[in-house]
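Pilot study result, target chain (277 residues):
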Amino acid sequence: MRIANVNGRLAVAVGDGWVDVEQASGGAFAADPQAIYDRWADFTAWASTISVDAATVGGALGLPVPAPRQLIAIGLNYREHAMESNLDIPEHPVVFAKFQSSLIGPGATVTLPSDGVDWEVELVIVIGKEAHGVAVADAWDYVAGLTVGQDLSWRAVQLRGPAPQFSIGKSYPGFSPLGPVVVTPDEFADKNDLAISCSLNGEVLQEGRTSDLIFPVAEIVSRLSQSLTLYPGDLIYTGTPKGVGAGRTPKRFLVEGSLVSSIEGVGDLTINLVNGF
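Predicted structure:
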């Protein structure tokens, strides 16, 4: 199942179109795209009954998960990215928080606050039911779906001392693009091995596969749940493959134009960049 925010309303894909959930369910489910995760089991059961002849709607895609309780991120989760960062391969997940105010959806414009903002395409997990103390073997049962994210990073802020400031350096307005849709795990031929990439103005900057994750999706959910309670609709950014600007010689950062982030089976998340400095 593919889930989206169409014109600010929850929708599911049927054929080549989108079905408005509130209208199709006769009001049994709200139009709010965030609310569905608190009723995930009921929603998926209902969605399996939608007729292929259901009336579809059109419109612009918006932020598919607009108001998560928690926005969690994992750093250094691809081996070659850790190497390009000149850091050891982590023995435990590197965890930090991003802030909800940094979320934007597909087609949005991000105003770059400096000429030192980096790119990081990421697979993002959407939690489907409350999780605490979950075993790795059961962790996928707590995943509602997967989507595409960018963890934009103002490196000078992120790394300024005396201790790194990951959360602030990665949470400026527009620094957490997400979308275009949420795709349930059953839609993927191999949910643990997806191509992931991003490009700027047509130039490919990053290419990788999610099978290279040091801590895969199930292990991330399990490990986080040993310390935290994960709630329906929470987002987990899972880390980025090699190819970031700060790891290059000379270093490169974002410029004005179109940034496209892609994950196999999910689609393309496009945002527009303009200078604000």
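One observation from the pilot: Residues 40 and 251 are 43 Å apart (CA to CA). A full batch analysis is planned for the follow-on phase.
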